[in-house]
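Priority: low. Protein: Adenylate/guanylate cyclase domain-containing protein. Input follows.
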Amino acid sequence: MQAANRRADVIGALRKARQQLPGDPAFGDPLSVSGPGGARAVARAADKIAGGAPSAAREIGFGALQVWQAALERVGRGRGSEPVTIVFTDLVAFSSWSLAAGDERTLTLLRQVAKAIEPPIAERGGQVVKRMGDGLMAVFSSPDRAVRAALAARRNLAEVEVDGYRPRMRVGLHTGTPREIGGDWLGVDVNIAARMMEAGGNGNTMLSSTTLAALRPETLAELGVTVKPYKRNFWAAPLNGVPEDVRIYKLSTT
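Result:
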């Protein structure tokens, strides 16, 4: 039994069989079991008991948990296929400023920035997925709430100042159906949202045509903003990773 449990051909056959089961056949990798949820918690415990080494028993156990996780997702308790709006933020020219400012002033600024931009996200039902130094990634179930949060964060940030330095923030929004794995969100739509932010240049708020189409018609009017098609600067590098059918727009205050 022990020999069969470790045989590479048996393990390979079980992994292939998992491709036919409901759910994510990669369930059990470090990314898929690092987040919250009952199935993930059991998976972490099972992997610890198994010692992390490949085995037939491990694959059988993860196959069962894979099906369980898929069942949870169908009733809204795990990763599903519902669209979300992804938001990326970033401070313009922050790195060059922080090098001259030093660690103490940099940390002071980052604390003030967090106090300015994170509460509007939480107040509008958004979830901060991760912080990346001077920026963050958040997800919203509603594109309207995402846009409102982004604009509120920008207003708050206008009040932030450290030793005469006032940070500028660029923001990118895109709506799609990324995959939630281990508390993170992965996939093409996440990359597109990041490219939207990159298009923000020196401090603009950019959104994809997908997000624009998903907004309620009255939202932009209520916020007092208009949208303009993005025109890439002649000297700017092209944005890689944005499908041809996705257009980019800039939000402008009226």
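The chain has a mean pLDDT of 81. The longest strand covers residues 84-91.
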